Amino acid sequence: MPVNVYIPTPFRSFTGNRTNVEIEAATVADLLARMDEKYPGFRNLCSDEHGGIPRHINIYVNNKEISTLDGPDTRLADGDQVAVIPALAGGNTR
Q: Per-residue pLDDT tens for 36-69?
């Protein structure tokens, strides 16, 4: 069951500058592992030292943040849209 994964600009160097990739995965955790198999180093961008998803990484399945679903255990279906988005610091520093 392939899902479409949106790759944000800061992570595209790991995917050959692709904006979207298709990966077969049953859950979000499975997706991250399979992304790392196909694009070595990708999982390190989205995992902390314990293998969890750090707070500065937001993962969406069909525009719903996975923390409102089943977290890394969120099931994926054929054709789902997944986005891995790093939170970026910015704004006024005054």
A: 999 998 888 888 888 788 888 999 999 999 999 9
Beta bridge partners of 85: 58
Count Cβ atoms below 10 Å from residue 82 Cβ, excluding itself: 23
**Model confidence pLDDT, tens digit, residues 64-73:** 999 999 999 9
For residues 13 and 42, give the distance between their C-alpha atoms in angstroms, rounded to a whole number: 10
Band (pLDDT 50/70/90 cuts) for residue 2 is very high
Rounded-to-integer distance, Cα 45 and Cα 78, Å:
25
Q: How far apart are CA 82 and CA 79, in angstroms?
A: 9
The secondary structure element, H or E, covering residue 73 is: none
Angle, vertex CA 40, rays to CA 20 and CA 80, nearest 5: 30
Q: Partners of 60 in the beta sheet?
A: 65, 83
